[in-house]
Design brief:
alpha+beta; Purple Acid Phosphatase, chain A, domain 2; eight-stranded mixed sheet; six-stranded mixed sheet; 6 helices; 30% strand; signal; acid phosphatase activity
């Protein structure tokens, strides 16, 4: 045992020392910066791919326990049925669900492919922690290859669950690297803290991104909040902000009493997750603020002992990039999260990694949330490498490298956060911390302050 302990300590020391010598990767351009063959529409002219009627960009969204939504796109806009055939056995589809489809326009120059939405488990709940095999499309036209996804574990305070957390993903070779590392791991859900495709008004880039992420987002529920790159207005707030995001990635906002796809909440195993909007009104008296007050009042920490918040623009950030951009939202809502005893907060926007101590009002506070910035998914704008000096005492770890994180609930009282740096072809765990829930028995903070 002493020999093993000595080896472990030497390894940890070597790892810590090697981080100082780590050469940070350079930014890389988008993959296929102009995807003319897949979706190009200028004043009525469209060049089609030969497989333009094939379902693609399939992804799964958690709706509520026992229920998921499946979304996909048919590029040609052909009006076909929205059907998902599924079963717990491969190639034996004993269940079928139907849904609706839509398209959207962006200025006069673009109209999307046909976007299909189907809910599974609406009539008969899906089994928890179960692999389902499925195909999407129209049985009378074109259907996808067989895919599979695994449902979330059953609800319960001590049920283990693993969230993958990423931000500012984009669609570069670094994005591919991040997704490749994720695909090699076991996870229950993917959370994206805003800035998805970096389409930035060029709508075909939403399609190339949808194809890129399908292998990861079609095998487990994917949940997101909007970032600034999803706004996509040109002038005078036109086109309508978030047009593409809302059509392509509808989240289960109505199920949590929200009136907007830009903010909502959901529950998974022993966690209640708040998905908040940095780019919609958040001041006291606003619809989002009122919704958040009501949502927090209904949280039962005996059933969901873990309380998590996700939004795009960070409230705590010691990087030079985007300094102060989350301050107004922080001033409006930090007290709500603190009083509710939120355990951990994830944000993106800053293209680097940073983990803060438990904090409230810019000071270490044992009853505040841990704040983590994960805007390092792989976007084309590159890393934010300049930090404030000296490092604030509440900032415990910071590094400008591409990567992703995983938040794993062990039980009702303990969870572990790990941040994985994308180093060549190897996933390197570069930061790890165990947390105790603020709602645990005997916590000096209490589950909820009223």
């Amino acid at each position: 045992m002493p020999v093993l302990l000595t080896c472990l300590l030497q390894f940890m020391l070597a790892t810590a020392l090697s981080q100082d010598d780590y050469v940070r990767p350079a930014a890389k351009p988008d993959i296929n910066p102009r995807d003319w063959d897949s979706k190009n529409f200028w004043f009525g002219w469209r060049k089609w791919r030969k497989d333009a009627d094939e379902p693609e960009q399939v992804h799964i969204t958690h709706v509520k326990p026992g229920q998921v939504s499946v979304t996909w796109i048919v590029p040609s806009r052909t009006k076909t049925k929205s059907v998902v055939m599924y079963s717990t056995e491969p190639e034996k589809y004993s269940n079928e669900a139907t849904g609706v489809s839509e398209t959207y326009g962006y200025t006069i120059s673009y109209k999307s492919g046909r976007i299909h939405h189907v809910t599974l488990g609406d009539k008969k709940r899906l089994l928890p922690d179960t692999t389902y095999y499925y195909r999407v499309g129209d049985p009378n036209s074109k259907i996808s290859k067989e895919l599979s996804f695994k449902t979330l574990p059953s609800q319960g305070p001590d049920v283990p669950l693993k969230f993958v957390v990423i931000g500012d993903l984009g669609q570069t070779e670094w994005s591919q690297s991040t997704l490749g590392h994720i695909s090699k791991t076991e996870y229950d859900m993917v959370i994206l803290a805003g800035d998805l495709s970096y389409a930035d008004r060029y709508q075909p880039r939403w399609d190339t991104w949808g194809r890129l992420v399908e292998p990861v987002f079609s095998r487990a529920p994917f949940m997101s909040v909007e970032g600034n790159h999803e706004i996509e207005t040109l002038a005078f707030n036109l086109p309508t902000p978030f047009t593409a995001y809302n059509a392509r990635y509808p989240m289960p906002f109505r199920e949590s009493g929200s009136d907007s796809n830009l903010y909502y909440s959901f529950e998974a195993a022993g966690a209640h997750v708040l998905m908040l909007g940095s780019y919609t009104e958040y001041h006291p008296g606003s619809p989002q603020y009122k919704w958040l007050e009501e949502d927090l009042s209904q949280v039962d920490r005996s059933k969901t002992p873990w309380l998590i918040a996700v939004f795009h623009a960070p409230w705590y950030n010691s990087n030079f990039a985007h300094q102060g951009e989350g301050d107004l939202m922080k001033a409006a809502m930090e007290g709500l999260l603190y009083s509710a005893r939120v355990d951990i907060v994830f944000s993106g926007h800053v293209h680097a990694y940073e983990r803060f101590d438990r904090v409230f009002e810019d000071k270490a506070d044992k009853c505040g949330p841990v704040y983590i910035v994960v805007g390092d998914g792989g976007n084309r704008e590159g890393l934010a490498t300049k930090y404030l000096d000296p490092q604030p005492s509440i900032s415990l770890r910071r590094e400008a490298s591409f990567g992703y994180g995983a938040f794993e609930l062990a039980n009702s009282t303990h969870a572990v956060w790990r941040w994985h740096r994308n180093q060549d072809e190897v996933t390197v765990t570069s930061d790890e911390v165990w947390l105790q829930s603020l709602a645990r028995p005997g916590s000096p903070c209490g589950a909820l302050v009223t």
